[in-house]
Amino acid sequence: MSTSTATAEAPDLARENAVFRKVVLRIVPFLILCYVFSYLDRVNVGFAKLQMSDDLGLSEAAYGLGAGLFFIGYFLFEVPSNLMLQRIGARTWIARIMITWGLVSGAFMFVSNETWFYVLRFLLGAAEAGFYPGVILYCTYWFPSHRRARVIAMFMSAIPVAGIFGNPLSGWIMDAFHGKNGWQGWQWMFLLEAIPAILIGVATLFYLDNGVRGAKWLSDDEKDIVEAALAKDTAHQKHGGAWDGFRDPKVWLMCLIYFCFVMGQYALTFWMPTFVKSTGIEDTFTIGVLSAVPFLAALVAMNLFGRSADKRRERRWHLVIPSLMGAVGFSLAASWSGSTALSLIALSFAAAGVLTCAPLFWSLPTAFLGGTAAAAGLAVINSVGNLAGFVSPYMIGSLKDATGSSAIPMYVLALSLVVGAIAVLTTKKEVVNR
Questions:
Q1: Where's the Major facilitator superfamily (MFS) profile domain (predicted)?
Q2: What is the tens place of the pLDDT at every residue in 96-115?
């Protein structure tokens, strides 16, 4: 490359970077806010369990089954939901998803028996289906693949943020409101944490744009820059109908990888309060504060790995290393369960590894899927992968009931992450390093 060519390209790259910073600042913080309450409303049942299990007479296995039934509804409705998002637009469909799940989440305060617990967990999954893969699809409308890992890592920071703020908040609500108006603390928690989802869902109708051309906050020149950057990705993508998203073998390899990662992710989010309580902590608010510590470690790790992956345009080892970190963390947590301090160190290592995998993972399928194939393919990957959200909590609950120990399920989780790391290593370099 000549000196004059390099000099000409430098201002163009600087201008492109400035435009994408503007896009990030407009879109990503709002999506993070949405996902914080999405995640909080699906996993706050882990805190409710501390009181609700005794009130409703739930066994460990029954709680695990109910927690996991969310993902059966999620699985059944996710692909149609994502196709609807592409058809009618992200703004309207994401707003519909948020308002619906807010209403269902609030209805948990009326649960009076095991059956209704199961029914509402299934309905919550059906209501929320399509939100996460819909946002991933929405990101492909705005960001080229080499910018996407960092953006998705920022978006998925909502998971540790929900743990950092949501866990102490849930513990405080359950303590502070217990007995008021004749309601239990867990009933107040479901009600108060559902309201923001409904309000933000309404705000979505006025804030989000369906695509680049509809963004009034971008000039025509800025829109051209974004669209030109996106156009460079199209040569690598599979554009086709929904069926193409189902029959691509790479899609099913992605399902396996994501399944392994999700096994660890939902073990943490559904069982973290129980893991912390098992070390000898009884106060609900203290459990909430201590449960936030591993998510702080994850917040730092996932953003550092996301930046590094985009800077080096390398995906394989940026996925393998954190997945093995998670495996080591779960193995150590199984061995150190008698000590609160050591358990938190091990769980922090596990959380940093497991939660780092997900944002980096999504840069793989979005690098080779486009159009309707992307809408279907991403939903298939997320829905099949998230079946681990059913398997993981039920597996942990069943093994805890059978053995009275958390060690064996933690070793199973570690093995799952090792399998995921091996599967990543089988992925072709042209897919992972783009």
A1: 27-432
A2: 999 999 999 999 999 988 89
